[in-house]
């Protein structure tokens, strides 16, 4: 694990401290606030959100590029089902 330094405004730092203290209480008692774990979790969640967003954007572009063909195939399938 690497150690880094970041700059953070007072309000955000206070919020991180509240989250860290709350997490300590949820895990069995009073625990020293662990800012690092809160920040690591936030980064993991942010990266997962970004990856999901990028996948969805890629899928939208693909669907948009093939919209006419998808609509044609859907219409053909519905027509075939209507005949049965």
Task: Note the topology.
Layout: H1 10-26, H2 35-65, H3 67-83
Helix pairs in contact: 1-2
Q: What low-confidence regions span 5 or more consecutive residues with pLDDT below 50?
A: none
Query: What's the overall average pLDDT, rounded?
Result: 91
The helicity comes to: over 70%
Q: Structural class, judged by helices and strands?
A: mainly alpha
In N-to-C order, the SSE pattern is HHH
Instruction: Tell me what portion of residues adopts beta-strand conformation.
Output: under 5%
Q: How large is the radius of gyration? A: 24 Å
Q: What form results from the Cα inertia axes?
A: elongated
Distance between the termini: 62 Å
Q: Please describe the biggest sheet, giving its number of strands, its sense, and whether it closes into a barrel.
A: none
Number of H- or I-type helical stretches: 3
Number of domains: 1
Give a count of the beta strands, DSSP E runs of length 2 or more. Answer: 0
Structure, explained:
- The chain has 84 residues and is an all-alpha fold.
- It has one domain.
- The protein has 3 helices and no strands.
- The protein starts with 9 loop residues before the first helix and ends with a helix.
- The model has no long low-confidence stretch (mean pLDDT 91).
